[in-house]
Amino acid sequence: MNHFPKIVWIALIAAASAGAQAQTPMGKTREEARQELIGAVRNGTLPHGEAMGDSNALKQPAMAARSRVDVVAELDAARRNGDVLASGDSPLTLNELHPSLYPQQPVMAAKTRAQVLAELAEAQRSGDLVAAGESGMKLNEIHPGSRPRAAMPVYAGAAGQRLQ
Q1: Verdict on whether the full-model pTM lies above 0.85
Q2: What pLDDT does 154 receive?
Q3: What are the beta bridge partners of residue 93?
Q4: What is the spatial distance between Cα 153 and Cα 135, in angstroms, rounded to a whole number?
Q5: Cα–Cα dist 66/76, whole Å
Q6: How far apart are CA 101 and CA 54, in angstroms?
Q7: Which residues is 85 bridged to in the sheet?
Q8: With helix as H, strand as E and coil as C, how does the chain read?
Q9: Which tens digits make up the pLDDT trace of 39-59?
Q10: Residue 9 CB partners (closer than 8 Å, separation 6+)
Q11: Which of these, 55, 93, 94, 95, could form a disulfide with 102 (CB 3.0-4.6 Å)?
Q12: Distance CA 101, CA 83 (A)
């Protein structure tokens, strides 16, 4: 009888199994992976959420830890000022929903009229204004070769009073 086909099949099966064993990666052991995970959790480099795909997220150091006393004091101050989110689906804070129940928030000093007009004149001179249309580009981006011209005085309304 002809044993040639049986021998060929045995040789093919042996070669395939040897090749499968050669392709098995020799990676980390279970214990090595576990220790690496524990270390990543401890130093804050374990990516989570949208950071999973970001390879730079692993290189960023963990935020400096604050003491429990500091966090509790900050939370108490936020509750007193109403700087905590209101319950429910509202994106507003409690002091935005009920301003009469909380102390008035300090208002940051705004720029004076003269400062705003000076900034406007400088932006007009340098072309740092958004051009008309839908491009969203600034005038100095559209016309990069134009030289800045001297600032022109800004006049208000029909009375023609100079504001500078």
Answers
A1: no
A2: 58
A3: 85
A4: 28
A5: 15
A6: 44
A7: 93
A8: CCCHHHHHHHHHHHHHHHHHHHCCCCCCCHHHHHHHHHHHHHHCCCCCHHHHHCHHHHCCCCCCCCCHHHHHHHHHHHHHHCCCECCCCCCCEHHHHCHHHCCCCCCCCCCCHHHHHHHHHHHHHHCCCECCCCCCCEHHHHCCCCCCCCCCCCEECCCCEECC
A9: 887 887 776 655 455 555 455
A10: none
A11: 95
A12: 12
CB 143 within 8 A of CB 126: no
Residue position matching structure tokens 């900050």: 74
Closest by Cα among 60, 59, 62, 78 to 70? 78
pLDDT tens-digit map of 76-88: 999 998 888 888 8
